[in-house]
Amino acid sequence: MNEQSKGGVGMKRRILGLTMMTVMALFVFPLHVNAGTPQQTIEAYVNKVLDVLREPASEGESGKKAKEEKIWSVFDGIFDYTELSKRTLSRNWKKFNGDQQKEFEDLFRKLLGNVYMDRILAYKDEKVLFHKESMLSDNKAEVRSKILTGTKEIPMDYRMIAKNDQWKVYDVIIEGVSMIKNYRSQFNSILSKKPPEALLKILRKKVSKA
Amino acid sequence: MKCLLSAIVILGVCLIISVFKLNPSSSLAWAEAWDLDSQEKGSSIVDKSVPTRMETARVTVDVVPSAADEEEEIVEIADPIYYWNKGMYHFNDKVYFWVLKPVARGYRWTVPEGARTGVKNFFYNLAFPIRFVNCLLQAKGRAAAGELGRFLLNTTVGMFGLGNPAKEHAALNPPDEDLGQSFGRWRIGNGFYVVWPFLGPSTLRDSVGLVGDSFLDPVRYVKPMEASIAITAGDTVNETSFRIGDYEALKEAAIDPYISIRDAYVQHRKKKVEE
Predict the structure, then answer these.
(1) Which residues are CB-contacts of A166 (< 8 A; sequence separation ≥ 6)?
(2) Fewest CB within 10 angstroms: A50, A140, B139, B239, which?
(3) Which among B52, B71, B268 has the least Cβ separation from residue A175?
(4) Could you tell me the pTM of the whole model?
């Protein structure tokens, strides 16, 4: 935020005071660092991930683990897993009881995290360019980005929803393919024949393998 | 020989159409898909100024986070020849892991990236007529001009298309067009899902498009036919050498790879038609 102050000294002081308070608040409530426009939010998170990736890795397995741990914490800040789960299961969501919904959220988080992590790790040397944001509705936005590699551009769009003063990702669209729609088509096909428990079993297996 | 091949393909397509027409459940699915499609088109993106943090906060107060009631529907695709498709999916999967991938890997290891990029550029430049004609078929004048400009620049300055000096100019890089997309633009629906051996996922509409486009592909006119096929195979290996790992990642991410790929194909094509 670039504030312009044309007022007198008092005004300047107040602004300075406000700025100080804001800065302090940022330390006290780290969550609020990311409140901004959708694009600023996602850009900040993606840069955080890229920073972690570019850090020189410490030795061996533990170093890799530590890196992954850091990336997971970034994911947890930006993805709204409840929203993701509800949207992905759509009308099947109601077929799940409370415990099943909770477990689904957790398993889906791990699945998506692993998938997304793999993709990011694969692209780590490439540049990410954010070039457009547009509002889809009052509380939803789409931020477009491109991953630039030596030979091609991969469009990656983020759908975001505003919740409690935070922009959270509820869908990632890579080359026009929406992640939640893609999983929905798969889950629909399983749930049309089998009960929720069967899907959870498949997911448990899938996640433990990764 | 070529005539025979074309005849077989056309016959196959006719057969598929007739199967499709006879199967009432699938045409129902088709109708549904069509319907959903048009519904989605109706909800266009509203371009507004992005709210600041303060506005966001105000907006969120009266927002009830209910996702299920306003969900966007997935793009359905009819799959009346599921068993054929599933078989071909497994066949192509094996072709990839047993043949294409090892060959592309060896090729990547032997041939330096610069040379592979040159080959890639060359074939891309060669397929210019397909993209150009389809820009015209969709009345995309600016894109057609961009295609033509790139072709001229890359063929001359770029040494027969080996180089890609047009890369830096946005106007010379319009989205790729093909006949399947042109059909889509003319509001012709996907029909149903088809997986072809070697060629992979497609739909009835896009398959007809592929046959049509092949007439504009210079490689098709290379004689003898064996040479033409060999060139296509070489192009495929070269192309694959840049994307080893993509297919694996897609499969790894999926719970049901067949359905995931089917949906991804349809979503991807829908976006390309809209572009």
Answers:
(1) A31, A34, A35, A41
(2) B139
(3) B268
(4) 0.75
